[in-house]
Amino acid sequence: MFIIAVSNQKGGCGKTTTAINLAAALASLGKRTLLIDLDPQAHATFGLGITSEKLESSIYNILTSKPGKHVPFLENVIYPVDENLDLAPSHVLLSTIEQEFTSRDESVSRLREALSMLSFPYETILIDCPPSLGFLTFNALRAAHWVIVPVELGSFSLMGVKKLLSMVELLRLKMRYAPKVSALATLVDSRTRFAKYMIEKIRETFQGHLFNSQIHQGIAVKESQAKGVSLVKHAPKSRPAIDYLLLAQEILSKTAGRSLLPEEENGKTMLPSNFLRDFMVKAGGAKEVHLVGDFNNWLVSTDSLLWQKEEGLWQKRVFLEPGRYRYKFVIDGEWTTDPSNDQIEPNPYGGADSVVEV
Predict the structure, then answer these.
(1) Which residue in 244, 274, 317 sits closest to 24, CA to CA?
(2) Which of 29, 100, 149, 273 has its CA 20 to 30 A from that of 335?
(3) If we measure between CA atoms, which residue out of 81, 121, 95 comes closest to residue 41?
(4) Which helix (H) or strand (E) holds 325?
């Protein structure tokens, strides 16, 4: 599992655009990818077509869980977006989180701890950081192996970058750990002399750690944002979409042999991705749909909620270890078998359960 944070305190540099489209590009190349939206503005969440106000849970619930109480697992706030691509969405409540934890030293490792307990077999995890250098960004840097700093080729593009680099150095001194940092040139118009000049200035600032890939301007970016989909899905042949695919390939080539392996840093073997199961049901007009079964002790709770992917279609992605499981949907309080699964068996209570085998 390789973790990448996308960070720059300067707005308008293509930070969220990079987080969304690099995640989608990696997923399209066959890497099971999770995007974590750590920005209270929730632009990455909106940019993938999800309205955060309607969500029952978000990354906020993970970071604010209290010790000694039921601590939700990161899996319970993850929403499937596309093949190989999942999202841990943001919420506006993240904007209040710094006041809750400023006096707790251990709080800067909350995200790292949540990721260490993640059972879903992701190969890459991207974190979209807020445009600031506070608690949330520090959590992301603490968790990341690599930090990508998008830098648009404008006169003020490098303002504030040194503060981010200083935060990384602080991590090195206090935690004895620091991620690799590389710059990414964005909003590039390669026809101008000024663009070439700025690229050299960026290379100098980051001591040569600048991606060869560059992200060019294009109307397809704004179109994809308006539709709530990635560039790879909206306009796969557009210049920016190709740029992000080239960036994904560059990252994979640079990490080959030392990361993106089916193994954690502590030697724990990751389970294969075919242990993930998508459960979907059509329930037009339903207010609430749950998935319960042997895998969660048949407990109806906020953790068992499905999310409405589109009108009438509810979905939940579940990690199941090898075995045989009985399950049902609970639609507005009514228990029902899975209409898309022909494998049904009677239960001891006179009813029937759907069955899935992994």
Answers:
(1) 244
(2) 273
(3) 95
(4) strand 324-331
Other beta carbons within 10 angstroms of residue 201's beta carbon come to 13
What does the alpha-carbon distance between residue 139 and residue 326 come to, in Å, rounded to a whole number? Answer: 38
What confidence tens digit (pLDDT) does each residue in 151-189 have? 998 878 788 788 898 888 888 887 777 899 999 999 998
Give 259's pLDDT tier (boundaries 50, 70, 90).
very low
Instruction: Note the pLDDT of residue 190.
Output: 80
> How many helices (DSSP H) and strands (DSSP E) are in the chain?
11, 15
pLDDT by residue (tens digit) across 39-87? Answer: 999 999 999 988 766 677 899 988 887 654 444 678 888 999 998 999 9
**89-102 residue pLDDT tens:** 998 888 888 777 65
Contact 345, 326 (CB under 8 A): yes
Strands (E), 131-282: 146-152, 180-186, 276-282
pLDDT digits (tens, 9 = 90+) for 4-21: 999 998 888 999 999 999
Q: How many residues does this entry show for the chain?
A: 358
Query: Can you read off the two tokens belonging to residue 284?
Result: 């037009």
Q: Which residues contact 95 (CB under 8 A, 6 or more apart)?
A: 40
Is the pLDDT at 289 greater than 90? The verdict is: yes
Q: In what side-by-side order are the strands of the sheet with 85-88? A: 79-82, 85-88, 33-37, 124-128, 2-6, 146-152, 180-186
Could you tell me the CA-to-CA distances from 308 to 42, 51, 102, 254 in Å, in that order? Answer: 18, 11, 35, 38
Nearest alpha-carbon partner for 100 in 136, 64, 133: 64
Rounded to whole angstroms, how far apart are CA atoms 15 and 45?
13
Residue 224 to residue 109: CA distance in whole angstroms: 34
Q: Tokens standing for 308?
A: 């409405």
What is the residue-wise DSSP string for 17-44? HHHHHHHHHHHHTT--EEEEE--TT-HH
Distance between CA 59 and CA 135 in Å, rounded? Answer: 14
Beta bridge partners of 317: 278
DSSP structure string for 160-189: THHHHHHHHHHHHHHHS---EEEEEEESB-
What would the mean pLDDT of 117-133 be, rounded to a whole number?
A: 90
